[in-house]
Amino acid sequence: MKKISNELINYIKSMSESVLFFGEYNDKILDTINENKKIINCDILSSENKVNSKSQGKNKIIYIKDLRKKYKKKKLNYIVGDIKQLDKYKRTFVKDSIYINKKTIYLYCDNEYENNYLIKMYKRYNTKIDILSCIDGKIIIIDTSSSKTNIIKDIFYSMIDFLIKIYDFIGDMLIG
Fold first, then answer.
1. In this predicted structure, what is the pLDDT of residue 46?
2. Enclosing domain of residue 78
């Protein structure tokens, strides 16, 4: 078993064309992205307004709320990111990531994170999901090459998610 960062570096070495990266990253990962000649475009997704002085070359900062505005349908090849930074945006990120991605999504988290709900949301779109266990966490590999999006389906699933959230909130209020 390897660490998550070493596994991500191995995956980044095999990536090509366009990549969207978000979450905690170190200098090794940024250097690997800049050294990979097959990566044409790499965007770093950020919910904060910080510009890292080391992120030069192919990297640029964009904001999490602007995904559909920035990218067109099936424009990105790969998405790599930390699940913990998506907790606020999980409902919208799943449908946006299916909409803008055409190959593979790599999401990583520590071992304590509950990812069953996230996996259930991705399985709605006919994706293939593999979970790779590492020493310090796990990587969820989501193949979106055969996924299909539909506006009516997205609205329907958004309403179901909202109703489940209300149901959980009412249940928590009655118990607590």
1. 59
2. 4-150
Provide the whole-model pTM: 0.79
3-state secondary structure of 72: coil
Mean pLDDT of the chain: 79
Q: Residue 30 contacts by C-beta under 8 Å, 6 or more apart in sequence?
A: 54, 55, 59
Residues in CB range of 42: below 8 A, 6 or more apart: 18, 19, 20, 21, 33, 58, 59
Contacts of residue 48, defined as CB under 8 A and 6 or more positions apart, other chains included, come to none
- The more confident residue out of 48 and 151 is 151
- Among candidates 92, 98, 99, which has minimal Cα distance to 72? 99
Q: How many helices (H) and strands (E) does the chain have?
A: 6, 7
Number of domains observed in the structure of the chain: 1
CATH number for the domain including 135? 3.40.50.150
Q: Token match 């999901």: residue?
A: 129
In a domain, 105, yes or no: yes
